[in-house]
Amino acid sequence: MQRALVTGAAGQIGTELVQALRQELGAEQVLATDLRRPDDDHPAVAGGPFGLLDCTDGDALARHIRDHRPDTIFHLAALLSAVGENEPQKAYQVNLGGLITVLEAARERGLALFTPSSIAAFGPGTPPDPTPQDTIQRPTTMYGVTKVAGELLCDYYHRRFGVDARGLRYPGIISHSAPPGGGTTDYAVEIFHAAVGEGRYTCFLEPDTQLDMMYMPDAVRGALELMRADPDRLEHRNAFNVTAMQLTPRGLAQRIQARIPDFRIDYDVDPVRQTIADSWPRRLDDSAAREEWGWQPEYDEAAMVDDMLGHLARRTDEASSTPAPG
Fold it and tell me: Quick one: which of 22, 80, 276, 304 is 20 to 30 A from 186 by CA?
């Protein structure tokens, strides 16, 4: 991998993946794209080349590929679970329409492709704890339907056309750099901002809802390590279970309270997101990823909480010390 194009570069994963790719490959070697241009100080814009792109527009994608000449595409553009349930037709069009457009571009130009799947690809009939690498996948959300179809499409393009397509089934992702994007696991990001900013958080899931989670540095590193892995060792490709920790709202709140004693959590359960969460795995079996390409998370719950609170506290201190304009 020498030159990369990233779709959805202003999103939660894209924000940090673009920075990691530019550190590894060089700023000018990584083209960040998104449907809308973020602020000028956003890493996707400030750190290197940026282009506007609707990922379902094959002609626009072809122009970016022709001009930038990537050998690898990281296709992150998608509508997430909660947003997808509000707009299921749009989620289908963006998630699958965008993927087939990118797959065709990869086929025509011989490009490698990373596209993330999700724990949403499973459903209530899946063994929840642990969820095997190879198991029943009957999701109950449009987001999940598009993820299962996406896994199958990527495998098809690999078998039929030789496209080097690879992917990870991400659990919930926790990050301090970008806001949540409308997912069912968003509480695990929102709770930190609320703890540092207001000292109180109202959670939309029940207190003992256990879900698989991962800290963003591990999510980014996992994508890069998978794309560097020896293809001869990969049996599953699309997509590998990966995990790092299992969280509940109550347990995470207690971890935060150990560091911010005055923090308080309340619950106002959203039945739609609770139903989605109840259909997802409590713990993924990621032994295939460990065996086939050496996956190993670096952050557990305690290390993640310390790092999140440290980053957000520094950001708050910097904002409070900045003089007001005028």
Answer: 22
